[in-house]
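name: query_chain
kind: protein
chains: 1
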Amino acid sequence: MHAEKQRRGLAVVRMLVGVIFITHGWPKLAAALADPRVPQFAAQLHRMGFVPGVGWAWAVTLVEFLGGVCLLLGVLVPVAAALIGIEMVVAGVTVNLARGYYWTRGGWEMPLILAVLCGVLALTSPGRTPAARAERR
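structure:
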């Protein structure tokens, strides 16, 4: 019974993190589909040293949106969670670290929480879903 509760709890965390990243990735994806050069996001990434900015903009967009979809559906969870977790560590260090700890000031608190949750999901069995069972066949 304990294992079942643990599995269900991890599934809830997995789905929540998936929804968070779908909602963060969707506006980026919509902008990228409207203009594949994603000029604003690409320029922002380029200024931060991520060259080429367009390539990194697409990478971040796809990791967030498709990774979120994978987490929500329970497919490729270790890969999706690891990629999103890595992105959150990079974002926390390059964007948020200088702003301090608190998320209310744009600090690294939230990227840290999301990175840890993704680490947990990447390292554990995040709950079975019909999609995950189909993936194993």
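note: The longest helix spans residues 2-34.
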